[in-house]
Amino acid sequence: MSEVIKLRKGLDIKLKGGAETVLETLPVPSTIALKPTDFPGLTPKLSVKPGYEVKAGDALFYDKYHPEVVFTAPLGGKVASVNRGERRRILEVVIETDTNAGFAEFKKAKPGTLSADEVKEQLLKSGLWPFLKRRPYGTLASPQEKPKAIFVSTFDTAPLAPDYNFIMEGQLGSFQTGIDALAKLTEGKVFLGVSEKSVFTNIKNAEIKQFSGPHPAGNVGVQISHVSPINKGEVVWTVNPQDVLFIGRLFETGKVDFTKIFTLAGSEVEKPKYLQTVLGAPVSSITDGRLKKADHNQRIISGNVLTGKKEDPMNYIGFYDSLVTVIPEGDEYELFGWAAPGVDKFSASKTFLSKLFPKKEYELNANMHGGERAFVLSGQYEKVVPMDILPVFLLKACLIHDIDKMEQLGIYEVIEEDLALCEYVCTSKIKVQDILRAGINTMIKELG
Amino acid sequence: MKFLKNFFERTEPLVQKGAKYHWLQSVHDGFFTFLFVPKQTSKTGTHIHDYIDLKRTMSIVVMALIPSLLFGMYNVGLQHYKAIGEMAAVGFFDMFLYGLLKVLPIVIVSYVVGLGIEFAFAQMRGHEINEGFLVSGMLIPLVMPVETPLWMIAVATAFAVIFGKEVFGGTGMNIWNPALLARAFLFFAYPAQMSGNAVWVALGKGDVPIDGFTGATPMADAAAGNITFSAADAFFGFIPGSIGETSTLAILIGAVILLVTGIGNWKIMLSTVAGGVVMGILLNIFAVNAYMELPFWQHLFLGGFAFGTVFMATDPVSAAQTEKGKWIYGFLIGILAILIRVVNPAYPEGMMLAILLMNTFAPLIDHYVVQGHIKRRLKRAKVTA
After folding, report:
1. Which residues of B touch A14 (CB under 8 A)?
2. Which of A22, A176, B138, B354 is 20 to 30 A from B188, comparing alpha carbons?
3. Would the pLDDT of A9 be above 70?
4. What ipTM does this complex have?
5. Residue B288: inside a domain, yes or no?
6. Which residue of A has its CA nearest to B323?
7. pLDDT tens-digit profile of A259-287?
8. What domain of life (chain A) (predicted)?
9. In angstroms, rounded to a whole number, what is the distance separating the alpha carbons of residues A165 and A239?
10. Interior CA angle at B183 toward B245 and B213, to 5°?
11. How far apart are CA A62 and CA A39, in angstroms?
12. What CA–CA distance (Å, rounded) separates B179 from B172?
């Protein structure tokens, strides 16, 4: 193993309700759904109508501007409905699952024996292509571009994040196959970011880079910036560890297998643990009967508490998410809350007594803990961004949509998750992730 | 407490836009959020937020100012009784009480005028009330000589809040530190009343000072060539001067509070002191008069140096915002403060002007730091391309 890349900046937020390493297999959900809204910048075109019968791996919709990029059904069954929102935007394509519906057939072959084009074609047809995301911007990878490298981060440092060492038990073979396939897609290298104790260190066909340090050390964007930072005109692709498994299984079996292990965690969960179901499962199939009975409101989040999306139990888990977090909503007034000594109040600042108990775990809620203000305190964001970026100045460039400045200050290297901690620590409660995405959208609009 | 919450919740519709008391909206909101942290939860972005907010931040700074305020009150009394030669007749509490009665009106005037304007602007703009003035309102009395007339305090505060802050868009947008602006405004607008030896020590109408009393601050004396104070007096603060600036010890207690909580920036404090020390040593080396010969470390106890270093230079809004910039910014404040103080005959104290000047240059310093950062990033692109 090469040297360890040590990151000093960042912040570990210790929350109550971490998942025990116990796996429960759930029955096949009666409905599943794919949500075009999970893919930033996508304009979907439907391939099916309600009532169509589909097999697992059949296309449901495709990208209007890249018709070869299709999104396929995780399980077979009948298309139950296409739910639309404002201006008829497609929100969900819902499938009533049928275990006898069968699978679409794809090529079964060792990726090593295939050409790059064959691998690419297989991923596109089977609907696995959308698991490849590109940097800059964190949007879908385009089949036409050539990435200088592909990055997979095999550990997650976000609060309550899943432990991939546990999830990968017995599945490392498929992971290796997936990496072999990815290696075909780039002329550069596949990089694996690993943590200190990792089951991934023996994976072949990829360069292993070990990282240590607090969150966001596990963010793939942070790892890229330390291994092979993105300059103007360069493209890097990223894939999540469980999504590498999907790719591996496709080449091993010739079928799509979207079986996925989700982590259910958070202080409002009765027994936080790992649950095996399928991509696109409804939130309720995971949370029903597993939450604490409470007289206050609860917030269910698809993803982690920093970057996830608030979801109704009736909705479906996000395409890229491996975690469902449940925390108290916290929609209550607090008398002199800002003046309390704060033994129970976790803070990155040193103004609460909780600072004296560094090992303690906290029950944090979704309250803002104060009103939004103009930017006052400097130096806060810099402490939680372990990259060669001046976050405040980058965000200011985003606010005024100054393309040159955004480019010079590193907009290509970051997406929301990399600056999410800034939003958490901000005294002025500034919406960092919204500002950054608005800046990225400007970049996409102006420069493509 | 339930009663209070119900009261505010029930009156909320009455102050909404278009309702009867809509002009009270900011006031209502200000008091409500002061008593209760709102129930608002996050809608986009991160779901959890740090418990810290601007109210807590600002109240910690106010807390750090309390030792200086209390000592200032005591010292006002002390200097008064010293001047009229009745030191033997009065005790600690008499002195403190005298000072309290002198200083409290100044504090009240500063807060009433400043907060009044803040509320009015918040209402006009439809903003929430910003907590910035909680600190400025305390800083203003502490940098004033005790005999400043109350109407001047009011005018200066109004000037500082309106032209120092609100014209730029309110807290967070200002270029100069508002409290220092208030002080500078008086200094230049009313030079006759604000400088010289008559304003530093409180004297009542019938009070007759003892023989030999001048009322001059040690710095005024020093500028005239007589070093009249002991270093210990200057450190503990038993010298005439602005209300809150005299005791380096009380200020150090505040500095500890700011540094332990991380609210005050240690880089700026350290580099300011470093700048002062360097300039002091340089002056010592090239000394041609008694003031230049003053041991460099004694400069740190004199005048507004310590107070400015801890509470003014560190104002995050008007200081440099880049980490490298903070070092440069603080160091230059230290250099300029001592330089102006000793070399310029027109201004016996340089801290105020040094900080205001560097406030002006802070964006420029940041600009060059950011340009340096951009250049370094560009170089990286060429290497890998």
Report:
1. none
2. B138
3. yes
4. 0.90
5. yes
6. A379
7. 999 999 999 999 999 999 999 999 999 99
8. Bacteria
9. 16
10. 55
11. 12
12. 14
Strand A207-212 vs strand A236-238: parallel, antiparallel, or unpaired? Answer: unpaired
Which residue in chain B is spatially nearest to A433 when comparing CA positions? Answer: B45
- Structural domain total, chain B: 2
DSSP string computed for B14-64: GGSTTSTTGGGHHHHHHHHHHHEE---B--SS-S---S--HHHHHHHHHHH
Could you tell me whether strands A59-63 and A31-34 are parallel, antiparallel, or unpaired per DSSP bridges?
unpaired
Q: Are the beta carbons of B45 and A303 closer than 8 angstroms? A: no
Q: In what side-by-side order are the strands of the sheet with A298-302? A: A23-25, A273-278, A259-265, A323-328, A298-302, A309-310
Task: Tell whether B152 lies on the interface with A, counting CB pairs under 8 A.
Answer: no
Is B112 within a domain?
Answer: no
Is the peptide bond between B105 and the residue preceding it cis, with omega within 30 degrees of 0? Answer: no
**What are the backbone dihedrals phi and psi of residue A447, each rounded to the nearest 5 degrees, phi first?**
-115, -10
Best mutation target among B48, B263, B367 (most A Cβ atoms within 10 Å) is: B48
Name the token pair of B168: 């730029």
Secondary structure E strands in chain B:
36-37
How close A371 gets to chain B, by Cα (Å)? 8
Could you tell me the CATH number of the domain that includes residue A11?
3.40.50
Domain boundary among A230, A253, A276: A253
Residue in B237, B234, B199, B194 with CA at minimum distance from that of residue B215: B199
Stated length of chain A: 448
Which structural domain, as residue segments, surrounds residue A129?
A: 4-26+110-253
For the stretch B74-97, pLDDT in tens is 999 999 998 888 887 888 899 999
Domain count, chain A: 2
Tens digit of each residue's pLDDT (9 = 90 or more) over B275-321 = 999 999 999 999 888 888 888 898 899 889 999 999 999 999 999 99
Q: Testing the interface with B: which of A14, A367, A384, A434 to mutate, by most B Cβ within 10 A?
A: A367
Per-residue confidence (pLDDT) for residue B385, from 0 to 100: 46
Give the gap in angstroms from C-alpha B269 to the nearest C-alpha of chain A.
15
Tokens for B8?
């505010």
Which residues form the domain of B342?
A: 265-385
Task: Reduce the DSSP state of residue A43 to 3 states and report it.
Answer: coil
**Cβ neighbour number for residue A337 with a 10 Å cutoff:** 22
Beta-bridged to residue A152, according to DSSP, are A192
Q: Is residue A192 part of a domain?
A: yes
Distance CA A14, CA A9 (A): 16
- Quote the distance between the C-alpha of residue A421 and its chain's center: 15
CA–CA separation, A380 vs A286, rounded Å? 37
Coil, helix or strand at residue B352: helix
Size of interface A-B (CB pairs under 8 A): 203
Assigned token pair, B33: 């959020």
Q: Report yes or no on B162 lying in a domain.
A: no
Alpha-carbon distance B240 to B223, whole Å? 15
Kindly determine whether residue B48 and residue A365, on different chains, have CB atoms separated by under 8 Å: yes
Residue whose tokens read 């006898």: A100
Point out the domain boundary residue: A253, A278, A304.
Answer: A253
Tokens of B103: 């200083």
Put simply, whether B173 touches A (Cβ < 8 Å) is: yes
Core vs surface per residue B211-220: b (16+ CB within 10 A) or e? eeeebbbbbb
- Cite the beta strand spans of A195-291 per DSSP E: 207-212, 236-238, 259-265, 273-278
Contact A342 B380 (CB under 8 A): no
